[in-house]
Every structure is written in C-alpha cells, then in structure tokens.
Recover the amino acids of this structure.
C-alpha cells in the first residue's frame, strides 16, 4: 500500500475539495473522500488491531441502523444518497482519527490558494471558469451574485471558507505554522467569503467572528469582568433590532442584504415572502424537527422526504405550513442534523450528541488553553452549520469530527 503520509494527505486533499468531480454521479458532494476513507478503514481492519473511541462506535451503530432502515423502508435513489451520508460520517471520521497526525499544513495552504485563484478568475475574468471540474454550478456571478470557485453555489463556497478558517486556527494553535501565516490565511479566507455575496455565508462569517470575540474575552480577561460585557453584547444585538423595529428606522443603502434587513426590522415574518430560499431552509429545519413527534420518535425512513413533506406541513399547520408553501421544495432535506432526526428518529439524535461528547472530551483532555477554547468554539460553529443546508455527506464535517477525536484521545495531538 502507499505510504501512510501520502495516503493521509491525499485523504485530507480530497476532503478539502468535496465538489471536485472525477465522474459525474448526479450529486453535488462527490464520494472521493468516503471512497478513500473506506479503503483506509478496510486496510486498518486487515493489517492492525483496530481500536476505536466509543464515540466512533456510536456513529458506527447509527450507520448500521441506517442500513437496516434503508432495507426496510426507504426510497431507492434518495435513500441510497442518505445512506452514503451516514457511512461518510463514520468512515471519514475514522480515517481522519487515524491519519490526521501525518497531514502536512502545506496541503492545506495549497488548497486555500487554489480556491482563491478560481474565485478571483471568476470575479474579474470569466464567471464560468472551472465549471468543467464540477458536477453542477450556478455561476451566480453572471447573474449579479457572488462567485463559487470550486463549489456549486456561493453559499457552499462561503461555508467551505468557514471550515478552512477552523482548520487555520487548528494548525496555528498546534504549532504547525507561525502567527504571520495564520493572519495571512485568515485574511485570504475572509476575502473569499465576502466575494461570494452569499447571505447565509456572510451570516456564518459574522457568527464565526462573534464566537471568536466571545472566546477572546473568555481567554484574555478576568471572567468577572468579561461575562457582563459578553452578556451585554448578546442581549444588545436583539435589543437593537427591537429598538429599530419600534422606531421604524430605515437602513439607507441599496444592497439586497440591506433591503432584507429593513424588511426584517419592520415585519420579520414578511422576509420569508421576499427571500424564498430562506423560507425553504427554515421550513426544512423546523419540519424535520417536528417529524420527531409525527413519527413518534421512530423516524420516517431514508429518502422519503418528498413523500412526507406535505403531510408534515399539513399536520404542523399554522405559520409553519404557510412558510413551507412559500417555496415548496422536495429532494433532500436542507439540514444535516434535520436529516438524521427525520430519517432515524431518536437514533438520529445520537450524531449531534456524540459530536458534542467529542468536543467536550477534547476540551477536557488538552492542556493548551487555546486548543481547549478552539474545541468549544469550533463545535458551536459546526453545529450551527449542520443545522443549515449542509448534508451529512459533507466531508469537511466528518473530517473535523475525526480531528476532534484525534486530539481528544492523544495528548495534544502527539
């Protein structure tokens, strides 16, 4: 077999480019990472005594349950796509847990610059540049929106930048490169997230820096001083919106984001009628959680969302039904955690709980205070991303899950 170092860096590389297409199979996220992770898993089973953390065993049990449910009650195509998602979480996190110590930061730095190169070329020269390397691309910049680089949508590009920002912190806090490189990479990634012009992406970027700000206060100041300041910030933001709403203030700018913000201030519910994408995402998240009651905790099966979304909306009724029919979309559920809860019921809750346990164990077992806070802040950011329109099959999520376990069970990653 190829050397551990080469295989580890190859897995890391294909994880960082989840939309890069070798063979078009009709899905956005490509199976390159899960295929390679499966080979690593089989190799480990055949050549060495394979010990797994109990968190990985929990994910394995969820995957096995998903397989059994797929055989009993599922739609063939959509169900198989969901099944790959559950297998991805286990296989990629297992492979990451085993191989991350061999990963070279230069692979990561190279990936950041590749995304930057394609993004800039699309921004200033050709919006369709790189389209032949992707399974599907919106090229929204040609329609006045942001660029996509080597992803399929501006929002996916922005979210990839968030995952890369998290990895940037990890490499810095574990001493893999110096502060100058860390600051440079952070600026490059922030620039890339901004040129996507994605509302959800910019929201996640703002959330990232808000959490970084909280972490800075907790690390740098006495808690008796920092906690009141943080409480003021947290309460002040919604308080500001309430004040603007009562004062009927207009934000004087012509951007679409500002128009949505003005609408949200004046009539929050009406924003769903303007931003149909937001309506679809919101309804998918809420209906998938509501399905836990609808299915009495047993789940409704893999890939059955198109069959049941209308029934769920009618059963929920009220505002949720109204939001659902603003933009009625079928296909896959636009929420990673929502998919697990809808399809597997209470068993699906094991995934976010296990993710939390991995972050908590990493926080408790690491001696570096920066790495401890990295675990908590990264958990919060990724957890929120997985509520949004990111599927369980998204390789960076599973890879970071494995990284959490790697540092949790090895003293500061050594």
């Amino acid at each position: 077999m190829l050397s551990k170092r080469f295989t580890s860096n190859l897995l890391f590389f294909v994880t960082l480019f989840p939309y890069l297409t070798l063979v078009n199979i009709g899905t956005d996220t490509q199976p390159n990472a899960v295929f390679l992770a499966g080979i690593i898993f089989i190799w480990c089973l055949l050549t060495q005594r394979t010990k797994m953390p109990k968190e990985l065993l929990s994910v394995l049990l969820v995957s096995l349950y998903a397989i059994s449910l797929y055989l009993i009650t599922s739609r063939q195509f959509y169900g198989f796509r969901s099944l790959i998602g559950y297998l991805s979480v286990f296989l990629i996190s297992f492979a990451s847990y085993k191989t991350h110590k061999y990963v070279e930061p230069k692979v990561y730095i190279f990936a950041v610059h590749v995304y930057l190169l394609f993004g800039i070329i699309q921004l200033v020269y050709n919006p369709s540049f790189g389209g032949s390397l992707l399974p599907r691309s919106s090229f929204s910049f040609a329609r006045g929106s942001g660029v996509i680089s080597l992803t399929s949508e501006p929002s996916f590009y922005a979210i990839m930048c968030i995952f890369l920002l998290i990895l940037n912190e990890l490499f810095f806090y574990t001493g893999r490169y110096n502060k100058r490189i860390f600051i440079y990479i952070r600026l490059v990634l922030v620039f890339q997230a901004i040129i996507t012009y994605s509302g959800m992406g910019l929201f996640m970027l703002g959330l990232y820096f808000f959490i970084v700000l909280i972490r800075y206060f907790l690390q740098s100041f006495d808690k008796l001083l920092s906690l009141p300041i943080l409480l003021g910030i947290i309460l002040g933001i919604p308080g500001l919106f309430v004040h603007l709403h009562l004062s009927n203030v207009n934000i004087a700018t012509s951007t679409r984001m500002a128009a949505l913000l003005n609408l949200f201030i004046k009539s929050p519910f009406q924003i769903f009628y303007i931003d149909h994408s937001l309506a679809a995402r919101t309804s998918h998240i809420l209906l998938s959680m509501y399905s836990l009651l609808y299915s009495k905790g047993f789940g409704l099966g893999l890939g059955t969302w198109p069959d049941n979304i209308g029934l769920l909306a009618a059963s929920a009724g009220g505002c949720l039904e109204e939001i659902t029919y603003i933009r009625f979309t079928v296909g896959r559920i636009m929420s990673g955690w929502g998919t697990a809860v809808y399809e597997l019921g209470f068993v699906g809750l094991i995934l976010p709980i296990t993710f939390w346990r991995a972050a908590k164990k990493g926080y408790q077992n690491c001696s570096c205070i920066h790495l401890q806070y990295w675990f908590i802040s990264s958990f919060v950011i990724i957890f929120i991303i997985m509520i949004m329109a990111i599927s369980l099959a998204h390789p960076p999520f599973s890879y970071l899950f494995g990284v959490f376990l790697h540092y949790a069970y090895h003293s500061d990653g050594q």
